[in-house]
Write a structure and sequence with these properties.
Alpha-Beta Plaits, 7-stranded mixed beta sheet, 2 domains, single chain, alpha+beta, 33% helix
């Protein structure tokens, strides 16, 4: 029987103050058995994604310590960024890698949520496989109105009450915790600075608008360039290559091409095509963002 290993990919609403990012990373790395595999910060999004893995017990404790540290260091009343968010620790997904099941990750997510609510007084919503209410399965519905809108809605709208925790927001906001299958966060930069084109392309390819299945997409302006920011929730059904090609087609209608693409976090080895630098115009620094390689290097 294989050793139980769970992956956790929390998203934090901070990237512009590296000392705070380093502090949160250290809170994770300080837990024996929790191995930090990757860290990705985006200044325009003002958001950091940290990928770590380990035994269920180590991952659960590391996630709690990271949430607690972020709550101490991040004030959402002072936060601005391109990416939608409702919390200092915005979302905490758990992914079963080996020796454990999705049900194990759901139980872990629920335990963590109860602890965050009781010990940190942070409202918690459960999503994806850990969702208690079916309408909360999708993260987008929980981020509606973002932090600013939720400050009012959480106290006045019964449909926005948290699954656990207080019906009020402090400066750390709320946290969404759940369990899910592997997801690929994948961004494509276009050869334009027109935000409208990025939004148009994103709308054309995302599933909710009738586009590609298992694709969530937003159009943003990042580093002065139009970006299509995506989550591929089932890369075996809609691959990175399929998303790349669809965006290339849609952008060409406006005379725009793909400049380059990037991975946020890590991807399974079988998600990458042969020669991704050429096929996906993938940034050179992203060519080693392979989950299996990072796990192997930590043994």
């Amino acid at each position: 029987m294989s050793i139980p290993i769970i992956e956790c990919i929390p998203n934090f609403s901070e990237a512009r103050r590296p000392e705070i990012v380093a502090d949160i990373r250290q809170a994770i790395a300080g837990v024996p058995g929790a191995h930090v595999l990757d860290l990705h910060s985006d200044l325009d999004h003002n958001r950091t994604v940290i990928t770590f893995a380990g035994s269920p017990q180590a991952v659960e404790e590391a996630a709690f310590r990271a949430i607690a540290r972020a709550a101490q260091r991040i004030n959402l009343d002072e936060h601005t960024g391109e990416h939608p968010r409702i919390g200092a620790t915005d979302v905490v997904p758990f992914v079963p890698l080996s020796g454990c099941t999705m049900e194990d990750c759901v139980a872990l997510a629920r335990r963590l949520g109860e602890r965050v609510a009781s010990e940190l007084a942070i409202p918690v919503y459960f999503y994806e496989a850990a969702a208690i209410r079916p309408e909360r399965t999708n993260l987008e519905s929980l981020r509606r109105g973002e932090y600013e809108g939720l400050k009012v809605a959480i106290e006045t709208d019964p449909d926005r009450a948290p699954d656990v925790g207080p019906r009020r927001l402090g400066k750390a906001g709320a946290t969404v915790i759940g369990a899910r299958a592997p997801l690929i966060a994948y961004n494509i930069y276009l050869t334009t600075d027109e935000l409208g084109i990025a939004k148009k392309v994103a709308a054309s390819i995302r599933q909710s608008s009738g586009g590609l299945p298992f694709v969530k997409a937003l159009g943003m302006l990042v580093e002065g360039r139009a970006q299509v920011s995506m989550n591929l929730t089932n890369y075996k059904e809609t691959s990175m290559t399929a998303a790349f090609d669809a965006i290339a087609r849609e952008a060409s209608v406006d005379g725009v091409r793909i400049l380059e693409s990037e991975i946020v976090g890590l991807v399974p080895a079988d998600a990458l095509p042969t020669d991704p630098a050429r096929r996906l115009k993938l940034r050179s620094e992203d060519l080693d963002r392979v989950l299996e390689k990072r796990l192997e290097s930590r043994k």
